[in-house]
Give the backbone structure.
Amino acid sequence: MSVTNRCDAVTSAATAVRPFLPLLVLLFVGSGCAALIYEVVWLQMMSLIIGSSAISIGLLLGIYMGGMCAGSLLLSRFISRHAHPLRVYALLEVGIGVCGIVVLWIMPYIGGLYTEIAVHGTMGILLRGLFCVLCLLPPTLLMGATLPAIARWVEATPKGVAWLGFFYGGNIAGAVIGCLLAGYYLLRVHDVATATFVAVTLNASVACAGLILSQRTSYHEPAGAPSTGLFAMPAGSASVYLAIGLSGFTALAAEVVWTRLLSLNLGATTYTFSLILAVFLLGLGIGSSLGALVVRRGATARTMLGGCQLLLAGGLAWAAYSLTQVLPLWPFDPNLSPSPLTTFQSDLIKTLITVLPGAFLWGASFPLALAAIGIHDRDPGVVVGTTYAANTVGAIFGALLMSLVFIPEFGSQRSQQLLIVCSTVAALLMLVFSTEGLASNGRGLGRWGVALLMVLATGWLVQTVIPVPPLLVGYGRFAARQLHDHGEFIYVGEGMNSSMTVSVLPNGVLSYHNAGKVQASSEPQDMRLQRMLGHMATLLPTQAPKSVLVIGCGAGVTAGAVSLDPRLEREVIAEIEPLVPRVVSTYFRQHNFDVVGNPKVRVEVDDARHYLFTTKEKFDAITSDPFDPWVKGAANLYTREFFQLVKDRLNPGGVVTVFVQLYMSNMEAVKSEVATFLEAFPEGLIFANKHKDAGYDIVLVGQATPGPIDVDAIQERLSSSEYAPVVYSMREIGMHTAVDLLSTFAMRGKQLKPWLADAQINTDRNLRLQYLAGFGLNTYDQARIYAEMAQYRKYPEGLFTGSPQQLERLRVRME
């Protein structure tokens, strides 16, 4: 019998003893669900340690995806084809579950070790990468090996390749479920431990099913299959690997751009990020399944793969058009939404319109690439592993280059235009330059005619992409409502972490916009809050405030208020986005006293939490004015552990001031913020910044060493000539004396104990605040929130000391 006939006979026999393929699809659904729960949990936990800046998140994603890429390649090198594929798959799932428990257990110790040895600069980035590798590489290696392992269970026919597409689609379908389950329930209601144990249970269930199936089926390595090396490529397949690599590049790069722009259109909550990822994965899953069906029917794989890439150029142009010219002007006012469910429905429709077409085509590309390469007479594990690796390597480069280089350097417009060109290049590889492509069969226009038409079409698509509208950057989901009332945008910037703009109204009011809303302005109520934060930080400490940390630069008004204190020797501003202190703050020089140019001031471009974790410095005062708590990542700066860290970084007698907004929030979120702060500062104080005699926002004040506030001492300093700049700053917000400033006192934190009885504490393990606040971003309930707090208000006997005259003035003003 010839070698070919013998191989065919073995293949036929193998086909007969390979049942349960539909059941394996269900197992991949389970493993995909577990994998996405782990991803959400691990990225959340690791960002608490190494920070949530673009560089840190880029390292996390790069190592996570890099581990899966390496796992897909290494399986065929270290696992013999003699091993039963179902048993290998089951053991991989066991290993993933074990790693899940280990990572959950060791993460606090990893964080402590990182804090002890962390450094800044280039070495600091390398150290972050090393810790990511220690935590994430082992489980991601195992995750990446699962699909190549099970690939050895299918027959080397078009039907077998189709089943690989179904497995891939099932895995992605499970990922959609895991993404929504983690983002909308497990982490919202429970914590990272519960989410991890759910994922471990899924791994265990899949592993048990895989082991049972392996015992009920026999497996024999196909005879005559040639040995292939780790990076061996079948003849003529280089162009396919390059095309699927470009497909991965455009997929993840587009996801970065779309997430940036959709978060402006929908609001940058954790729910928005989960929704975008879920819809993206849904498109991949549907596309993969339909691509598998096309392969099963014997369609020309390379032509279909090229067609997908060509259509992707149109899909990318459509997404750009939707995100910048359609969705921002939809006549839908989020404030009119009766419930979060209604808002979710609108957000889902917008996300489907934008993301689904492109994601569908990227999903279809993977099984088509497998079919284009072919697995007949080859180790399926090698073919699947190398194809998956090529796609993943492209995805890694796409995600990192887009977030760290392309958007900051060239903007969203040029970045999306580049992706359209890349998709056309991938299409040209398959349709024009491939020996089996559409233009190689001698019919129609011929090779160069097809190429010319594709280039012309691409040129037209590229010119349809416009820059991101300043109105969208400035007002986000409220852009349509502000269409005729937004003033003049005098600066628009796209940084590594966020997009921002500065506007000026006809009356001269300046506004700094970020996350699709005004974050700081020269409006009287905003100026009062920003300067209260800064002046309280320097006037309330019992000792001279020689060193002060300002968390969040923004317009620089708070930092500018701090810089005026004559006793100040050193001020550090921790700001995550480089463009903010470098550019945005310059537009507010008149209001921030040119704080960034002050020789006493040092700007640290870093996530504030990461900076505090890694610095050995202590401060006499710390003031915090971060993003709104509903913005994904901001809740990291409101946890019990973070406030305790702040307390540990205060010198004796030091003071911390923290901004808490009442507008665009809800009762549950405000209770969580206040109660969590009081966990670290039980004697905490609350000062109110009211607008039109109603609640607007509040300032939380914590003392390293609780004690009375000396009104006379503060007034004595303000009366001295060296404090003239401070007095000038206070007068601009309607405060002339110490009594004016301190009369904003609202209540002691312990007075709110009955009101806070049902408050949910925001911790590193649950980040509860971002889920609570995410339901309140479209509400303006500040008056009711403050009215409930104010019912516990009374004059704080013993808190203030000073002359009887000053105390009487203070009592009268407060009453």
Notes: The first helix runs from residue 3 to 16. Residues 1-17 have pLDDT under 50 and may be disordered.
